[in-house]
Design goal:
The complex is a heterodimer of chains A (about 500) and B (about 210).
Chain A: H1 2-28, H2 33-45, H3 49-58, H4 63-76, H5 87-107, H6 112-119, H7 126-144, E1 148-152, E2 158-161, H8 163-169, H9 181-184, E3 207-213, E4 219-231, E5 234-243, H10 245-296, H11 302-330, E6 338-340, H12 342-359, E7 363-368, E8 375-377, H13 379-396, E9 406-414, E10 418-425, H14 453-463, E11 468-472, E12 478-485
Helix pairs in contact in A: 1-5, 2-5, 3-4, 3-5, 4-5, 4-7, 6-7, 10-11, 10-12, 12-13, 13-14
Chain B: E1 7-11, H1 15-27, E2 31-35, H2 38-43, E3 52-57, H3 65-74, E4 81-85, H4 90-98, E5 103-106, H5 111-142, H6 147-157, H7 162-169, H8 173-186, H9 192-202, H10 205-211
Parallel strand pairs in B: 1-2, 1-3, 3-4, 4-5
Classes of the chains: A alpha+beta (about 500), B alpha/beta (about 210).
Chain lengths: ~500, ~210
């Protein structure tokens, strides 16, 4: 190794001398185009050492030079340009830059990957000598990416960490080397050896949402992808860590907004929901008091009391069902993607607005095609869409005479794999200019509307892979439609659950 | 507890509530008939000959409870109404009470409120029934009077002596005496005061005379 280093140093010295000579020539002969170009480039591009290092490698420079170049580039921390075809110029540039940055490069802590690179040529053979250069360039490229990248050996120890990784995890230069990847991303399986990550068995969707840990112990959501790579003739793992804090923030904000509109919608319904609860309570109280009276009179009729108890149980269930549905809509939960029946979503919402419809003198009809396949989605969010469309339909009927206040909900199977929900009202229909605006946030035609209902409904439906639109009916009123794809992986729903 | 003929009608669109209320009222010994809509009630509308009252939910899906009350009032029914409602507001309550409801109760309704309310309503009903029977009787008796007797009756209840009545009608006082005796007999009155009291209940006898 020392012999090799000496050779490398000697070569470098020679090249530097040549270049110095060249510069002298160039100053004396300004008409020579190429050296002028070289000088200018040296001035202008001397930071772009990576490109030069690259070219130098192409020209079969010794490994030491390459290693130094990489270190130079590391300290410089600039992006390369690869556009130039001027090999010679760049070769010179490489020399110049290296000289210029030598001090920095020497101060720079040598990283294990570089050490091993320099060790590599000791193995002797020509192919082995080519290999480290490849890894070197690979590592250097990785260093430039804005994503945090960790290369770990089969034991899970970090061999290489790029600049973005150091920044993301809060470590200073080089400290990440040797740290177990499992310490940075605790949920990551530690034995991500070549065995389970052989090139062939790589999953198409290898991204996982995990929690990663910074040096100071704080955690952040991250998207992690693991890929097997060949690094220094070993099968290692390359882990890409993308900080998802912002995306989660955005997602959370959107969820909070949806939750807020849900709660405010329920607030509007509070009166009728209270009525919905009051009904079973009335029945419970009257039944219980009737039972007390029946028991107080002789002879006691056990059949009567049994019947009352049966009704009491039913009414209690009914009351708790209402509460359960309200709580489900009010709860702040994470999105769930579970197979669910659209029919039950609609039935639940219909139960919540049942009293509201009566108070407003609206007749509501629900028609569901039997045996519908389930869809995958979040029940609460889909209920929010249905609730929103139903309440909009109710509002549209306000000006209609009592006999014409009708809302029809139809759930049908379209084109074999799409469920379509139509909410049809008999109101006055939509004005022509609202069609393109009504799904935009803050657009409202109501006196005290927020203008969020339909825009949130649209984002929910689209998140579920469906679409939402509206049409005016031929006679009167409008119909809002939304579609949901039926889950391919979901099992066929139990027929008994359908009406 | 109550008369055998007393019937309580219950109208509530909620089956469970309807059943429970029916049971509770039945447990108090009343005869109960329940309906789940106003239309159903109006269709098989019983003739309210007997002592009865109506326990009515305000928020019905077909016709609102208050509208049903108006319809019943328009049909000149004397059926007392006890309203029950889940969401009572002052305006609705005032409207219902002004239109003659005997009570306005909030759901869930306790037996300690409902049963006295029913008792009261039935009392009102039986009173109205008694009044109506009495009036029918008076009308029946008045129908037996001849036109001349009716004229005599009208002047008598004004407190005029026989002489003035004779003068006013232009007939002999002796004849008036005969008519007067007939009127007293037909109206089943024992004294003039008795006759005045009876006639007072139906308004002016002349009006009835014209009607007959």
């Amino acid at each position: 190794m020392t012999a090799l280093s000496a050779t490398a140093a000697l070569t470098v010295l020679i090249v530097v001398l040549i270049v110095l000579q060249f510069r002298r020539m160039q100053t004396s002969m300004p008409t020579d185009g190429l050296p002028v170009d070289a000088e200018l480039s040296a001035q202008r591009y001397n930071n772009y050492a990576f490109a030069a290092a690259d070219e130098a490698a192409d020209l079969e420079q010794p490994a030491k030079a390459v290693a130094d170049q990489t270190n130079i580039r590391r300290s410089a921390g600039f992006r390369p340009t690869r556009s130039s075809g001027r090999h010679i110029v760049h070769t010179h540039l490489a020399m110049l830059s290296r000289r210029r940055f030598r001090r920095t490069s020497l101060e720079d802590k040598l990283q294990p990957c570089h050490v091993t690179s320099r060790k590599e040529p000791d193995d002797g053979s020509g192919t082995a000598a080519r290999q480290p250069r490849h890894d070197e360039r690979f590592g250097a490229t990785l260093d430039l990416l804005p994503l945090a990248i960790l290369v770990a050996d089969p034991q899970g120890k970090t061999l290489f960490a790029n600049a973005a990784a150091e920044k993301l995890f809060g470590y200073s230069r080089g400290e990440l080397i040797g740290v177990a990847v499992g310490e940075l991303v605790p949920a990551l399986p530690l034995n991500v050896g070549g065995a389970d990550l052989a090139l062939g068995s790589r999953e198409a969707d290898g991204h996982r949402d995990l929690v990663a840990k910074r040096r100071d112990g704080t955690e952040f959501p991250a998207e992690v992808a693991i890929n097997p790579v060949s690094w220094e003739s070993e099968t290692c793992t390359l882990t890409i860590v993308i900080d998802r804090t912002e995306r989660y923030e955005l997602l959370r904000n959107r969820q909070q907004l949806a939750h807020l509109t849900r709660v405010s919608t329920l607030g509007e319904l509070a009166g009728s929901l209270a009525h919905e609860l009051n009904q079973p309570l009335t029945a419970i109280l009257s039944n219980a008091q009737a039972a007390q009276r029946f028991l107080a009179t002789e002879p006691v009729n056990p059949g009567e009391v049994r019947e009352i108890l049966h009704d009491l149980v039913d009414d209690t269930h009914r009351a708790s069902e209402v509460i359960r549905k309200i709580r489900a809509l009010v709860k702040k939960g994470d999105l769930e993607a579970a197979p669910l029946s659209v029919a039950s979503v609609i039935r639940d919402v219909a139960l919540l607005v049942h009293s509201d419809a009566i108070v407003r003198g609206i007749r509501m009809r629900v028609a569901v095609t039997p045996e519908l396949p389930p869809v995958r989605g979040d029940k609460v969010q889909l209920q929010q869409v249905v609730l929103n469309l139903l309440l909009n339909a109710f509002d549209a009927l306000e000006a209609r005479p009592a006999l014409d206040r009708e809302v029809d909900i139809a759930v049908t199977l379209e084109a074999g794999d799409t469920i379509r929900v139509a909410v049809r009202d008999s109101g006055s229909g939509l004005a022509g200019n609202t069609f393109d605006k009504m799904f935009l946030p803050f657009f409202t035609s109501k006196r005290d509307g927020l203008g969020l209902g339909l825009s949130i409904s649209r984002s929910i439906v689209e998140m579920h892979g469906g679409c939402i639109w509206a049409e005016n009916n031929e006679d009167h009123g409008a119909t809002f439609y939304f579609t949901l794809p039926t889950g391919a992986g979901a099992t066929r729903s139990v027929p008994g659950r359908h009406p | 507890m109550s008369e055998v003929s007393s019937t309580v009608f219950v109208v509530d669109d909620d089956t469970a509530v309807c059943r429970a209320l029916t049971r509770l009222i039945r447990s108090a010994g009343y005869c109960v008939e329940s309906f789940e809509s106003a239309h159903e009630f109006m269709e098989c509308r019983p003739y309210f000959k007997d002592c009865a009252c109506l326990v009515l939910d305000v928020g019905l899906p077909d016709i609102n409870g208050l509208e049903l009350q108006n319809e019943l009032n328009a049909a000149n029914s004397a059926l007392p109404i006890i309203f029950i409602t889940g969401d009572s507001d002052i305006a609705t309550t005032v409207r219902a009470m002004k239109a003659g409801a005997t009570d306005f109760l909030a759901k869930p309704v306790s037996d300690s409120e409902l049963l006295p309310a029913i008792e009261n309503a039935l009392r009102v009903s039986s009173q109205a029934l008694a009044n109506r029977t009495e009036l029918d009787g008076i009308h029946g008796r008045m129908a037996r009077l001849t036109p001349r007797e009716r004229e005599v009756l009208a002047l008598l209840v004004e407190g005029r002596p026989n002489k003035q009545v004779a003068c006013k009608l232009g007939i002999a006082e002796k004849t008036i005496k005969v008519h007067r005796a007939r009127v007293m007999e037909k109206m089943e009155a024992h004294s003039l005061v008795d006759l005045v009291r009876v006639i007072d209940k139906v308004g002016t006898p002349l009006a009835h005379g014209q009607r007959a």
